[in-house]
Amino acid sequence: MARYKGPKSKISRRFGEPIFGPDKVLSKKNYAPGEHGNGRRRKQSEYSLQLGEKQKAKYTYGVLERQFRNLFKSAQRSKGVTGEVLLQLLESRLDNVVYRLGLARSRAAARQLVSHRHILVDGNVVDIPSYTLRPGQIVAVRTKDKSMEVIQASLAGFNHAKYSWLAWDAPSMSGKFLNVPQREEIPENIKEQLIVELYSK
Predict the structure, then answer these.
(1) Bridge partner list, 132
(2) Where in the numbering of this chain does the Small ribosomal subunit protein uS4 N-terminal domain appear (predicted)?
């Protein structure tokens, strides 16, 4: 499975946000990497801003270029505002939902749980991180994997009430994908209109 394996702290510093999760380096060096990162930076062009926003979305959700472009094309074909639909498609990915349910501390860890066959969808093993969930589907941990230390550690103290489109059932260690979230419910700091403008050139 293709995925980004480069330096994550460097990417987070470029955008000034912990897009891969909590990062100690970001708190110590809250400026862009490179020789001129801590100085005055020249004004970015329109294209640079648009490209940066697309890159931020890709890194945040752990999606590579071809996958991202295909998702954008799907969003264009769908009813609704293209940028919002794009984010909704990203939020509906299985790896993202596993992360939102608190079963993993990062999307990368969630992808690993899925690809290693620890996750069920409606009672069946699904090992495709990009699998798109539909409203009403149930995401759960396989019975024999519920005691996994990495899952238990991630769930400890996790607030399941912060995502209104997901319902968590603690006894069964499962979550229901109630509906596709509205844009205002998605917490990611992404200016999706800039991505639409980039692909519309």
Answers:
(1) 93
(2) 3-91
